Amino acid sequence: MSRTKSGIDPEIIRELANLLTETDLTEIEVQQADLRIRVARQINVTATVPVSAPAVAVAAPAAAAAAAAAPAAADPANHPGVLKSPMVGTAYLGAAPGAKAFVEIGSKVNQGDRVLIVEAMKTFNDIIAPRSGTVTALFIEDKQPVEYGQPLMIIE
């Protein structure tokens, strides 16, 4: 075991970092006697929205086409600016209980800004804005359980 001046074996840190990658975890902490090591990585979460080909209507009445488009427009999951939850967990709108929310309706955000936190398995994961724009809708409340793929907000 080759230790540095601080008494920490760099090989242990490499092994923990590899374990994070292999298991797709964001953070791991180990303690042995009075030595405690925490290794964490930042994950940039970006939501991808599939783009479908434009619909082609063949001799369909205008009323039928409008009725077919209305449910799709009402479903936030189909909105091009939707930010969906990348994991199952509990969503927090602020950094701490009682703290100001990261964003609210009307907030301007830049790509890469933290917009909320999702806690999963006692790990707090920053959810970042996949694009710059204005938050036009919030679909969750603070401390609300969320599911994978659930619409969280719309950034236009």
From TrEMBL:
CDD domains: biotinyl_domain. Pathway: Lipid metabolism; fatty acid biosynthesis. Coiled coil: none annotated. One of its GO terms (cellular component) is acetyl-CoA carboxylase complex. It comes from the Bacteria. This protein is a component of the acetyl coenzyme A carboxylase complex; first, biotin carboxylase catalyzes the carboxylation of the carrier protein and then the transcarboxylase transfers the carboxyl group to form malonyl-CoA. This is Biotin carboxyl carrier protein of acetyl-CoA carboxylase. It comes from Labrys okinawensis.
